[in-house]
Write a structure and sequence with these properties.
binds glutamic acid; two-stranded parallel sheet; Helicase, Ruva Protein, domain 3; Rossmann fold; about 45% helix
Length: about 500
């Protein structure tokens, strides 16, 4: 049962500080699913108020990641919407107006403390093992004096946290969370460069944009009471908070690239499918009974924010790889062909003529679909289909197991194979039958003959099914490669 009956307005609010990491993207996925589940809207808002941390090109990469995942947005920086702009650096007037209201209502004050003083204060607090925070020195400057000084001095605006009482925040997953106000310091809401801090920008924007649910990482939980104080002081209704537990590395600890946690676009590059990533990240920290493979439509139907897990989830790359394989296998054959074509277009050398022959790929796809988990594995399975010239592998590679130190015998076995199939009808079934008979006639176990043929025809020891592959490679190329291998083995005798 859904906890929210009306259409939700939710947002993904990344800071453009680099590639979105998967924990952050999981929040976007959950928000998107919730918007679609409730028939509401999903917004994208760029939170670029910390200009020093901005990384060029991030906004483009963020939007590209969402697009690749199929997380469509209804309002955002590129498409606008009723509450545009959706980029915080373009909304400075709104934050200034809010700060002004907070100053006028005596909920905020200007602070003229220099960075040096704040630094000294921090060191003193550390030395005395006191909790860090602003000591309120400028809180008592009379308003008229502060206004006058502001004309010539640098200042920040701080929120005047009440010294008494407590603040309670409701979190959808955790219930009420109460903190004593005296444990909060007078935090900065407007910086000296005129940009707001997140603490101010979040209440201002989420109110202006009519956000119903704020879904974000639980690193924001300690700040939530500050945000609640601002909502209240500005007379804004508070949104419903949903703080998400983090994703942990297998065995605990911080998730890093080493555990396979890459950016979304790197996952795309590595041959993952967007549906598999959406499904996998969605169920990392949320579950629907024992079901793991859920289509996007199913996820939209059953997903509810209220069911998110409070415990940190573990990132399981093996499970993701498995799931990606399932999605590849379940794909419509023509879609799989297109996915493979797109991948090979990228991965095959430029000499291979484009566009790739779809009929040929339609024959190849069923041979590999059970063998691959990632699209990046395709090339390794199929490159020999596209090679015009496959050099005969070094003879030592042929001379293993039964053929160890038996080059003449191996050459004879290949000669028998060539003789049996040259001029025969070229079909997988026919080839198999003929070559089984040839192995029996030569007194060679079928597996040993087939491994010689496989290596000669494909240049590899592990390939898609041999006879189907030979049918696709064609008689002329197969026979030429078999004869070349035979000659090499004779020469080595
Ligand atoms: N810009 C914040 C971040 O990237 C967003 C937090 C939020 O969703 O409110 O962490």
């Amino acid at each position: 049962m859904s906890t929210f009956v009306g259409p939700a307005r939710v947002r993904y609010a990344p800071s453009p500080t680099g590639e979105p990491h998967i924990g952050n993207i999981r929040t976007a996925i959950w928000s998107w699913l919730f918007a679609r589940h409730t028939g509401g809207q999903f917004l994208v808002r760029i939170e670029d108020t910390d200009q020093s941390r901005e990384v060029e090109g991030s906004v483009g990469r963020i939007l590209e990641s969402l697009r690749w995942l199929g997380l469509t947005w209804d309002e955002g920086p590129d498409i606008g919407g009723p509450y545009a702009p959706y980029v915080q650096s373009k909304r400075l007037d709104d934050y200034h107006a809010a700060a002004r209201r907070l100053l006028d209502s005596d909920n905020a004050y200007r602070c003229f403390c220099t960075p040096e003083r704040l630094d000294a204060l921090r060191k003193e607090q550390q030395a005395e093992r006191r909790s860090p925070g602003y000591d309120g020195l400028c809180r008592s400057i009379p308003a008229a004096e502060a206004t006058a000084r502001a004309a010539s001095e640098k200042f920040v605006v701080r929120f005047k946290v009440p010294h008494e009482g407590s603040t309670t925040v409701e979190d959808l997953l955790r219930g009420p969370i109460t903190v004593e106000n005296r444990t909060l310091d007078d935090f900065v809401i407007l910086k000296s460069d005129g940009f707001p801090t997140y603490h101010l920008a979040h209440p201002v924007d989420d109110t202006a944009m009519h956000i119903t649910h704020v879904t974000r990482g639980d690193e924001w939980l300690p700040s939530a009471p500050r945000h609640a104080l601002i909502f209240d002081a500005l007379g804004y209704p508070r949104p419903i908070y949903v703080h998400n537990a983090i994703i942990l590395a297998p065995g605990g600890g911080k998730l890093s690239k080493r555990h396979g946690a890459k950016s979304v676009l790197e996952f795309a590059d590595d041959g993952y499918l967007p549906d598999a990533i959406v499904n996998f990240l969605c169920i990392t920290g949320w579950g629907h009974g024992d079901d793991t493979v859920l289509s996007r439509e199913e996820l939209i139907n059953v997903f509810d924010m209220a069911d998110l897990s409070l415990a940190p989830a573990t990132f399981d790359i093996e499970k993701l790889n498995w799931m990606n394989g399932v999605y590849l296998r379940n794909m419509q054959p023509e879609d799989l062909v297109e996915q493979i074509a797109a991948r090979l277009d990228r991965d095959l050398p430029p000499e291979v003529p484009r566009p790739l022959d779809r009929a040929n790929l339609a024959a190849i796809a069923p041979l590999i679909r059970e063998r691959i988990q990632l699209l990046s594995e395709v090339l390794g399975f199929v490159d020999f289909f596209y090679a015009t010239d496959i050099p005969t592998p070094p003879v030592e590679q042929f001379l293993v197991k039964r053929w160890r130190e038996k080059a003449p015998e191996a050459a004879a076995a290949l000669a028998a194979a060539v003789e049996a199939i040259a001029g025969a009808a070229w079909s997988a079934n026919g080839l198999e039958e003929t070559l089984r008979a040839a192995a029996a006639a030569a007194g060679v176990p079928v597996g040993d003959l087939f491994s010689l043929i496989r290596l000669a025809v494909t240049g590899k020891a592990v390939t898609p099914p041999l006879f189907e592959s030979m049918e696709i490679v064609g008689a002329e190329a197969c026979l030429a490669r078999l004869r070349a291998a035979e000659a090499a083995l004779r020469a080595a005798s």
